[in-house]
Amino acid sequence: MRLRNKPWAQKLVKEHPEAILNEPDPEVKINWNERFEDFSKPLAIEIGSGKGQFITTLAKQHPEMNFIGVELQTTAAGMILRTKLNEGIDNLQLMCADAANIAQYLPKNSVDVLYLNFSDPWPKTRHEKRRLTYQSFLDKYQTVLKDEGHIEFKTDNRGLFEYSLISLNNYGMKFDHVSVDLHNDDDEIAQRNVETEYEHKFAAKGNPIYCLHAHFA
């Protein structure tokens, strides 16, 4: 969802290069050891962080981990950055960047969990390659994830969910959890679920939330 441009967000992003990488050059290696107090901690990354409700909440809940939020829209990235700065979330770094370059931004085999929350479904067939569960993106995720790492995916879009199940299965991934109504499940995954701002809105309308967890075999 495209947000209305907010000049304050662009200004904030430019003023805090220590907290957010703004359109980094994929050809220039990022020194993550300088951006985190201890980069050896388990690392989680969210691609498409929106306004940041999910990633900021998770980072506050888990100080024993490091988090990276990747968001393409500057206005949304600025909103996350404002929350990070106001609440002193030191174990969170941000990137205003294209997820297509994720394998160039992060070290190989460095990520423990990769979150895909309410990604753009790109419903038209000609836009299939833009879906974040398309094969070319899975190639990149496999590069940055540790051998024991995994993907956690949520959406309210049944078409994208079904497409993602097929795409990940055809890629040879193994499913650890699949739900077609996460909010009405009664299990450990549902109980520890952290909502995104879009998830809260969609669920309030009665939309089922689809969820899957999967790892590379």
From TrEMBL:
EC code: 2.1.1.33
This protein's pathway: tRNA modification; N(7)-methylguanine-tRNA biosynthesis
Binding site for S-adenosyl-L-methionine: E46, E71, D98, D120
CDD domains: AdoMet_MTases
A Pfam family reported for this protein in Swiss-Prot or TrEMBL: Methyltransf_4
Broad class of enzyme this protein falls into: transferase
Nucleotide-binding listed as a keyword: no
Coiled coil found in the keyword field: no
Region (Interaction with RNA): 126-131
Highest taxon listed in the record's lineage: Bacteria
Gene coding for it: trmB
Family: Belongs to the class I-like SAM-binding methyltransferase superfamily. TrmB family.
InterPro entries: SAM-dependent_MTases_sf, tRNA_(Gua-N-7)_MeTrfase_Trmb, tRNA_methyltr_TrmB_bact
Catalytic reaction annotation: guanosine(46) in tRNA + S-adenosyl-L-methionine = N(7)-methylguanosine(46) in tRNA + S-adenosyl-L-homocysteine
Taxonomy of the source species: Bacteria, Bacillati, Bacillota, Bacilli, Lactobacillales
Protein residues bound to substrate: K124, D156, T196, E197, Y198, E199
Species annotation: Lactobacillus colini
Protein name according to UniProt: tRNA (guanine-N(7)-)-methyltransferase
